[in-house]
Write a structure and sequence with these properties.
Blueprint: H1 2-17, E1 31-38, E2 44-52, E3 55-56, E4 60-65, E5 72-75, H2 76-79, E6 88-89, E7 94-97, E8 107-113, E9 120-127
């Protein structure tokens, strides 16, 4: 009986004190994104917010690897110069990345950075077909 009480208390404490959040500070957004690749000259990759929470553009960035010419980290505000850090990315919003001449072997991850802790979490990823 004592063991059950301790187990229930520990479960309640974990839930109410949010010990399992990974210490991201602010909760990560719950959102779905899609990717649309266009092989051209240069290649482009359109990232669309499909559904879920709105996200400030200044908290989103992509990481590109395996591309010729654009590997590394790119903030949403640098991908689309019209976006301010405080711009809201909502369902239907699109950003097109075309900073690489060849994305045919690339992997792109979309990440959210917590404004509170500075830690990041991956929201979506895309691998070249």
């Amino acid at each position: 009986m004592v063991a059950i009480t301790v187990l229930l208390a520990a479960t309640a404490a974990t839930f109410f004190l949010d010990f399992g959040s990974g210490n991201l500070g602010q909760n990560a957004p719950q959102a779905a994104f899609s990717f649309d690749y266009d092989a051209g000259s240069p290649d482009s990759l359109t990232i669309e917010h499909r559904s879920g929470d709105s996200v400030q553009a200044g908290h989103l960035y992509i990481t590109v690897s395996g591309a010729s010419g654009a590997n590394g980290q790119h903030d949403f505000t640098s991908i689309d110069g019209t976006l301010a850090d405080s711009s809201k990315i909502t369902a239907g919003s699109q950003v097109t990345f075309s900073g690489a001449s060849d994305l045919s072997d690339a992997t792109v991850t979309l990440n959210w950075k917590s404004p509170d802790s500075g830690k990041s979490i991956q929201l979506a990823s895309w691998e070249a077909p």
